Fold:
Amino acid sequence: MTDKMQAAVVEEFGKPLVLKEVDIPTPGPGQILVKTEACGVCHTDLHAMNGDWPLKPNLPFIPGHEGVGIVTAIGAGVTAVKEGDRVGVPWLYSACGHCEFCLSARETVCASAEFGGYTQNGGFAEYILADPKYVAHIPANLSARDAAPLICAGITSYKGIKETQAKPGEWVVISGIGGLGHLGVQYAKALGLKVCAVDIDDGKLEHAKRLGADAVVNAKYGDPIAEVVEITKGGAHGVLITAPSLPAFKQGVGMTRKFGTCVLVGLPPGEFPTPLFDVVANCITIRGSFVGNRKDMAEALAFAADGKVKADIELQPLSAINDVFKRLDHGEVPSRVVIEFAK
Ligand code: NAD
Ligand code: ZN
Ligand code: ZN
Structure:
């Protein structure tokens, strides 16, 4: 092992990542070192690079929170994993373990939570330091490249669909058929739901159909709310908004059936207008959902291990990261790019 590794670093918000050699970190007590095999590129990495959100990471930092690799070193006192295990280093990098939210398995909102590729260095590097108590355990029959998108896009869309509380046979709208949404369509079908996919790109909608969507609506044309209400005969029981675009949010609320739930997971910066009378008079629930807990992670991975969900991936080397970000920003990534590292 050399003591340097290749990494893609955000040194200034809104500027391209800098590819450079940095020191390989050493695991301290309770920490592990993971040799990265693959890391998916999430739209959140783009928000992180742009400094889009109120809580900003400290500069410089290494993004990437869909990193999967092999544990190569463990610090003192680590028992949760051993050398040679394949693990994922997720957005929920660590939490306190004893606040009211941690105690009730709502650990993603822990006030002391650290976020991978944001407040802690992430997977756009050959090695990642991780907290073994919070890593994802990758099922034996999943490759690193197939597992990587599940570590964020998979768990987030799976959990978001559960949070709609739609029941088998009922309708869900998945708005935004990118990294999260293309997996969301598959999870929703595996859960026995009827799926109406919404996007502004016909190619993404064609893809949603191939993945099992029962209906598709292009939100760029006509009246997408009226179309969804017509298709679902009154609105969808659950709506999951993954689109990183503000107009999708107001539309999503309008697509929600009476007493239905509209779950927000997309995180474009800003606010959206809420039609208050409709929400009140139709008894609609609007709720946020933030990745998922460790049990959600295990469940989301199990669907893939059972062959019910599979990420569509395009492999790229780390050196292509700035080009990938540009394409992601322009909606030109078909589903998920996974950065693959040399063995
Ligand atoms: P992506 O770029 O892969 O996919 C976004 C999709 O939305 C694209 O298919 C695009 O065509 C579509 N879209 C754009 N505008 C639209 C509109 N007006 N209506 C419908 N569809 C539209 O992005 P991703 O990696 O899937 O991430 C999506 C969002 O989710 C980002 O904002 C990301 O930060 C956020 N996110 C949130 C969580 C969470 O825990 N809440 C977790 C991961 C990602
Ligand atoms: Zn993500
Ligand atoms: Zn906590």
User: Anything to note?
Assistant: Residues 65 and 90 are 5 Å apart (CA to CA). The radius of gyration is 20 Å. Residues 153-164 form the longest helix (12 residues). The longest strand covers residues 32-40.
